[in-house]
Design goal:
Radius of gyration: 23 Å
Number of domains: 3
CATH class of the largest domain: Alpha Beta
Binding site for acetyl-CoA: 82-84, 90-95, 118-119
GO molecular function, one term: aminoglycoside N-acetyltransferase activity
Distance between the termini: 34 Å
Largest sheet: 7 strands, mixed
Shape: globular
Subunit structure: Homohexamer; trimer of dimers.
Number of strands: 20
InterPro entries: Acetyltransf_17, Acetyltransferase_Eis, Acyl_CoA_acyltransferase, Eis_dom, GNAT_dom, NAcTrfase_Eis, SCP2_sterol-bd_dom_sf
Family: Belongs to the acetyltransferase Eis family.
Length: 413
């Protein structure tokens, strides 16, 4: 049997890689425009191929992302297009590709890897765990949206989607500063991942509609991106893809707008944060219905010390963490995490390896779940996934890792 080799997929093999991806995901090869857009994505990614001789039998791509973390931004590999030929399952191909990705991350100083899962049972064993969670919300738009606060009454403007990105980018960047888990967007990302004319999963959807709120000539105080669709019986739905606002009143105005679109009797918003103020200021929770909660972005700490020092902490902390990591053995160690306020009041951490007795023992997977502030370590102690050696240590870590707003992302890749 020929040994497996893991190397970069050259541009000449990208079409072969796409054929492999369509085979694995049981998809008919798409039309030329869609195929070309997939090729464009792969060309923007780092591409790991599993080769058996000259045959490509595995594909893993990674977007070079800048991911918001508490108090800053860190580089992250955004894993996508993971595919293993059905003839080569259970032969360690995926493990080999992920190991190669982690090796490249270490070489390039990338401390984090992230992904959205197609099968949730797969990626935990590689050290990934959900770091953000989201709701799907459905609003009954057959009557005006009942609100407990007064919406911002500044004017609304509809922007051409093809030229909207420069206008709404400042508001998106402000949201990134407020919430961890958000991806920085360049022009290519806005055009291909956020505002493409055609919605790939459903070609009956409209092109994106972009509405901003604010006085003309001023940066928007908020925006909403949505698409519309009408079913066979003539009932319309407004599908909200993203809504950002500088205040609850701005958010209320944008939700009121989406719930008042003529001929749409329902608003469906996929991927809203668990602490979305809509769920508080809605006057009738029967009208605003949470239909699903689901894990969003899965995270992996490829370099534990760099990740822990790359974010700020919300309180002083001095703990010894014993981290286990079967996938990246250099991470497996005891670390003293010490966070103190700096001159600006932010709590920055120092992380040193130590032989001192641990306060907490946890796998890198559980550390990833807590890293952005979306999971309380004490919950993981109660679940038997984290061992607490010093009473109250999990509560101290939870207090220090907590953020004002829950981490959240809408950038699926």
């Amino acid at each position: 049997m020929t040994a497996m080799e893991y190397r970069t997929i050259p541009e000449a093999d990208v079409q072969t890689a796409l054929d492999l991806h369509y085979l694995v995901f049981l998809e008919k090869a798409p039309e030329d425009d869609t195929r070309e857009s997939h090729r464009d994505v792969l060309l923007h990614c780092d591409r790991v191929g599993a080769y058996e001789g000259d045959d490509l039998v595995g594909l893993l791509a990674a977007h070079p992302l800048d991911l918001s973390v508490p108090g800053g931004t860190l580089p992250a590999a955004g894993v996508t297009f993971v595919s293993v030929a059905p003839t080569h399952r259970r032969r360690g191909v995926l493990s080999g590709m992920i190991a190669e990705l982690f090796r490249r991350c270490a070489d390039r100083g990338v401390p984090l890897a992230s992904l959205w899962v197609s099968e949730a049972a797969i990626y935990g064993r590689f050290g990934f765990d959900p770091a953000t969670h989201s709701y799907t919300v459905t609003i009954d738009a057959t009557h005006p949206l009942d609100l407990r606060i007064t919406p911002d009454e500044r004017p609304l403007r509809l922007l051409p989607f093809a030229s909207a990105a420069p206008v709404i980018t400042p508001r998106h960047e402000a949201a990134r500063r407020d919430r961890a888990g958000r991806v920085a967007r360049d022009d290519w990302w806005w055009r291909t991942q956020v505002l493409p004319e055609t919605f790939e999963e459903d070609d009956e959807m409209s092109e994106p509609r972009v509405v901003v709120l604010g006085d003309p000539g001023e940066p928007p105080a908020g925006y909403v991106v949505y698409r519309t669709k009408t079913d066979d019986e003539g009932r319309g739905t407004a599908h909200v893809e993203e809504l950002e606002a500088e205040s609850p009143e701005v958010a209320a105005a944008l939700w009121r707008y989406t719930a008042s679109i003529d001929l749409a009797d329902k608003v469906r918003a996929w991927g809203r944060p668990l602490d979305d103020p809509l769920l508080r200021f809605a006057g009738d929770r029967d009208q605003v219905d949470v239909t699903r909660e689901f894990p969003g972005l899965w995270l992996r700490l490829v370099d534990v010390p760099a990740a822990l020092t790359g974010r700020t902490w919300s309180a002083p902390v001095d703990l010894v963490l014993e981290v286990t990591d079967a996938g990246v053995p250099r991470n497996a160690s005891r670390y003293r995490l010490t966070a103190k306020p700096d001159a600006g009041g932010a709590h920055r951490a120092e992380v040193t390896r130590t032989d001192d007795a641990p306060d907490l023992t946890l796998d890198v997977r559980e550390l990833a779940a807590c890293y952005l502030g979306g999971t309380d370590p004490a919950e993981l102690v109660r679940a038997g996934l984290v061992e607490e050696h010093r009473p109250g240590a999990a509560a101290l870590l939870g207090q220090a890792s907590r953020t004002e707003l829950l981490p959240h992302t809408t950038d699926e890749f």
